[in-house]
Each structure stands twice: as structure tokens, then as C-alpha cells.
Write a structure and sequence with these properties.
With 105 residues, the chain is α+β, with helices and mostly antiparallel strands. 32% of the residues lie in helices and 25% in strands. The strands form two sheets. Strands 4-3-5 form a three-stranded antiparallel sheet. A two-stranded antiparallel ribbon has the order 1-2.
Length: 105
């Protein structure tokens, strides 16, 4: 889940595990799981959860009410998400420079 952590006058973006509620601190230790699609020939929006690998990932399968899920590594999912909302790597680089100057990170 997406949250802001307000600390010392700053709003710090955080990604929390949808199962345990703890912060995702390392993309390599998290995945995005989704319930499987119901029809191969139909466009469908699928529920998804960001979870820690391991116990949280197993609990997500149960919470979604299925016996198996689809999944993507968190970094792969985020890369595709950024692409799908129209941001390029060049644009992200430019924005990063601007945000560094503003001390927003």
C-alpha cells in the first residue's frame, strides 16, 4: 500500500506490505502478487498486492482466496508501471535532479 511517512516536516513516500503493514525497505525482498485471470480472451483488471517474499507472499495467496497467484518482482512491476504512466528514464533522471535540488527525497 502507498503511504506517506510524515517526519520532521517532510512527507516521505513509503510502500508498505499489504499483509504485515511493515515498510518495504528492499525491492529484492518484495513481490507483487495478483489473483489469476478468469478468462484468457477477456481484458480484466486483477487485484494485486505488494508483499514481502516468504510468509507474507503465502498469506497473500490465502487472502486473495485462490490456490495460486501470478506474481512479478517488485522492481519489474514498478519499471512497467512507470512506463505505463508515460515516464521515460530520461524524464525520471531530469526529475531526480530537480527533486534533489528541492531536497524532497
Amino acid at each position: 500500500m502507498l503511504k506517506f511517512h510524515y517526519s520532521e516536516g517532510k512527507y516521505i513516500p513509503r510502500l508498505l506490505c499489504d499483509i504485515c503493514g511493515k515498510s518495504i525497505e528492499n525491492a529484492d525482498r518484495a513481490i507483487v502478487v495478483n489473483r489469476p485471470h478468469t478468462d484468457s480472451f477477456k481484458d480484466e483488471m486483477l487485484d494485486a498486492m505488494v508483499v514481502h517474499r516468504g510468509d507474507c507472499d503465502l498469506s497473500a495467496t490465502q487472502k486473495l482466496g485462490v490456490t495460486h497467484t501470478g506474481s512479478a518482482d517488485l522492481d519489474h512491476y514498478l519499471f512497467n508501471l512507470i512506463h505505463n504512466i508515460g515516464l521515460t528514464l530520461d524524464e525520471l533522471s531530469k526529475r531526480s535532479e530537480r527533486y534533489d535540488r528541492l531536497n524532497d527525497l
